[in-house]
Amino acid sequence: MEPDLHDQQQQQRLHSVVIITLPPSDDPSQGKTISAFTLNDHDYPLQIPPEDNPNPSFQPDPLHQNPQSRLLFSDLSMGSPRLVLGLLGISLLAVAFYASVFPNSVQMFRVSDERNRDDDSSRETTSFVFPVYHKLRAREFHERILAEGLGLDNEKFVESMDLELVNPVKVNDVLSTSAGSIDSSTTIFPVGGNVYPDGLYYTRILVGKHEDGQYYHLDIDTGSDLTWIQCDAPCTSCAKGPNQLYKPRKDNLVRSSEPFCVEVQRNQLTGHCESCQQCDYEIEYADRSYSMGVLTKDKFHLKLHNGSLAESDIVFGCGYDQQGLLLNTLLKTDGILGLSRAKISLPSQLASRGIISNVVGHCLASDLNGEGYIFMGSDLVPSHGMTWVPMLHHPHLVVYQMQVTKMSYGNAMLSLDGENGRVGKVLFDTGSSYTYLPNQAYSQLVTSLQEVSDSELTRDDSDKALPICWRAKTNSPISSLSDVKKFFRPITLQIGSKWLIISKKLLIQPEDYLIISNKGNVCLGILDGSNVHDGSTIIIGDISMRGRLIVYDNVKQRIGWMKSDCVRPREFDHNVPFFQG
């Protein structure tokens, strides 16, 4: 008689429990673990029969060697199937809960899979890496250290640095022969920067044809749309910057009918001039400084991170009239590098031509080591370890913003001047040296900081470096923030949800908002933002970006950050000395 398959299936009904444990968010290198338990109603023998075990060296795992463990699961299966299913449900809920609380660990696997798929197809875009400087003496120091490390004469090495884009073979040969196994396609430049006393970071770009190209130092500004350079058109009011004025050619001027001119003039008070032969622009900044000029185009020479070079005709501003405090900045730079989301910005122009994907990243190191870099393109975005939040998107919003649901100084809540006081906006702006809070939040912060005077510090109103400074009660100069940061508390920005357990946060430590002044005092690098931007937006300036890699992904509409020493992009750790010394 044929056996009853239905009865047999009921007798041998299987129940399985699968538990997946993801790695800690702060140490994804531990990997994930998967534990599977198969439960059956039958009492199988504990030892595997020899005929069913063709591999005599195989040893059953401890679970199969422990009859008590096996009988326990068997009893659960026989006595209460619902309990087993309940355990399975709880396990799945635990995994879902972990993914919501620690999304970075889950994102790591997702991004890794995406990158593996990308590797199977040819890449159409690449990334650019730019050096970031703060002043000439820092650049000379870094180049001297690198030259000594390579065993080169300093004068000759600086000359080769200036010619690197004009004659890339010469520089690549120098680095490859001097550094041995270094791949010349991954050559990166040493960089520097600070918040105080210079208050700016800039990079260096070669503009013009090879035979008459000139390097210009441009202040990197994620809050600016237009890239512009001081020019001799002739110049009405220009500061004496580190390099000679750019000389525009008449045949390179942008006509008023071109789309970029319409884009730039649309937001100006004078509006778009259709009958004009040239395209004039005027930009006013938050401190009432302004730049006036005309749009032109010329070749920008950009070094790809794989060592190859690209040149592209870029539309930018020829600034012949600068006024206000902007002239002080231009003593150290030649202009502004616009990095916003606007169509006229440099990354947007490169992305529109398929040269890069529209992703911008920067890493401004603390003043302790003075290094940093900026890149355009997605190749150098870390595959894990980043905290990602949605980017606020609006048709007329071209700056990098996110929403914040709570803000606190230590345990003290700070008000948000957003919608009904419940949701605020945070703007990332490398063009601002310091961080700004709305008036009410700033006042609450200053009140909370009165407790600092109960420590070893006291207010010093004679120090004009910043509005609020403290000196040591012993009158001895403060040499390091490490000596005084214990008297201050961190500022926490909570993003996404008001429930801390499922939200993300940006933690601003005391060293991220304090500086040491020339008088040896510690000063507050957070200012009243009542008259900055719209007065209700939290502006994260350079001082609070130091020691972090910050990425603006305009393709996926997200902003991300992670802690970093900013010595080199993570992709270069294994094959190139990004900075030596």
Question: Would you identify the regions where 5 or more consecutive residues have pLDDT less than 50?
Answer: 1-20, 32-79, 103-124, 134-190, 573-581
Q: Please estimate the helix content.
A: 10-25%
Please state the structural category.
alpha+beta
How are strands sequenced across the largest beta sheet? 4-5-10-6-9-8
Main sheet summary: 6 strands, mixed, barrel
Number of strands: 28
| Terminal-residue CA separation | 86 Å
- Summed up, the helix count is 13
- Mean pLDDT across the residues is 75
Mass-distribution shape: globular
How is the quaternary structure best described?
Answer: single chain
Rg of Cα set = 30 Å
Strand percentage: 25-35%
Domain Peptidase A1: 201-562
Biased composition (Pro residues): 47-59
Transmembrane segments: 83-102
GO molecular function: aspartic-type endopeptidase activity; hydrolase activity, acting on glycosyl bonds
